[in-house]
């Protein structure tokens, strides 16, 4: 198994360095490739903060990419991406919300937007 880091994923998605994008594609074509939620969080952060991508484009791009790799927390990540596309929350807060929805985790936070989302989900 190979776990890709954020830079490997970004070079593949952005194709802004052909040599690196080709290397990333070789890993993806090898079959047994995984990503973690932490790495996807970094990818989302860079796509938004550095490349100024719109949320809906980020969500569509990351979801399409996830079709090529394994992730142990797919349900959590799916909810996080959907929430990120629909709400004005930081991606990590969306991940926490995903854990709340999938695992029933209690989330302790002072973040007002996340608190509202958690309260709304309890209704």
Short account of what is shown:
The chain is mainly alpha-helical and 123 residues long. It has 7 helices and 2 strands, in the order E-H-H-E-H-H-H-H-H.
Rg from Cα: 15 Å
- Counting DSSP E segments of at least 2 residues, the number of strands comes to 2
Strand order of the largest sheet: 1-2
- Bin the helical content: 55-70%
* Biggest sheet overview: 2 strands, parallel
Mean pLDDT: 95
* Poorly predicted runs: none
SSE pattern, N- to C-terminal: EHHEHHHHH
Number of helices: 7
Bulk shape: globular
Q: Give the strand content.
A: under 5%
Number of spatially distinct domains:
2
- End-to-end CA span: 41 Å
Sheet/helix structural class: mainly alpha
Provide keyphrases for this structure.
123 residues; mainly alpha; globular
Structural notes for this entry:
- This protein has 123 residues and is mainly α.
- The protein folds into 2 domains: 1-72, no CATH class; 74-123, no CATH class.
- It has helices at 6-14, 18-30, 37-49, 55-66, 74-86, 91-103, 112-121, and strands spanning 2-3, 33-34.
- The protein starts with a strand and ends with a helix.
- The mean pLDDT is 95.
Question: Which secondary structure elements does this structure contain, and how are they paired or packed?
Answer:
Blueprint: E1 2-3, H1 6-14, H2 18-30, E2 33-34, H3 37-49, H4 55-66, H5 74-86, H6 91-103, H7 112-121
Parallel strand pairs: 1-2
Helix pairs in contact: 1-2, 1-3, 3-4, 4-5, 5-6, 6-7
């Amino acid at each position: 198994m190979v776990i890709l880091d954020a830079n490997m994923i970004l070079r593949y998605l952005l194709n802004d360095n052909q040599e690196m994008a080709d290397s990333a594609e070789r890993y993806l074509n090898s079959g047994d490739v995984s990503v973690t939620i932490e790495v996807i969080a970094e990818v989302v952060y860079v796509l938004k903060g550095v490349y100024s991508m719109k949320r809906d484009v980020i969500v569509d791009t990351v979801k399409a990419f996830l079709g090529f790799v394994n992730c142990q927390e797919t349900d959590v990540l799916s909810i996080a991406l959907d929430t990120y596309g629909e709400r004005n929350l930081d991606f990590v807060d969306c991940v926490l919300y995903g854990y709340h929805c999938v695992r029933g985790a209690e989330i302790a936070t002072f973040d007002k937007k996340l608190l509202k989302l958690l309260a709304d989900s309890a209704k």
